[in-house]
Design a protein that fits this description.
Helix content: 25-40%
Order of helices and strands: HEEHHEHE
Largest sheet: 4 strands, mixed
Oligomer: single chain
Strand content: 25-35%
Distance between the termini: 37 Å
Structural class: alpha+beta
Shape: globular
Strand order of the largest sheet: 2-1-3-4
Length: 121
Amino acid sequence: MTTTLRVGDPQGLLALIAYQLGFVPQESLAVVSLQGAHQRVGLMARCELTELATDHGARLAGTLVNHCLTDNANKLVLVFFCDQGQTGAVQDQVSRAVKLFRAVATDRVEIASSWVVGPQT
């Protein structure tokens, strides 16, 4: 028997991320693969925010995008989990990471949206 979970709002997707990963991420990026016309949730992957800020951040972003493409993604949702909320430093880090993903995604997959989840959001 197949169980279908319907996610219709951001809170539902955030709960699904925690459920699928088995924990609520902290100081992390969760990449969610969306597939097809009905935008079915596919692959979910998580990485540390600090890893994206290193010299191999672009390679990591490329690897995650490639895994999502292998999963037949046509859109991605980037969810940044930041304990500090949306401080200037966090906004800079998120902006750099989104640029990395857009650069490697090019025309292969759309970055549908990016969210920052923190204590005040």
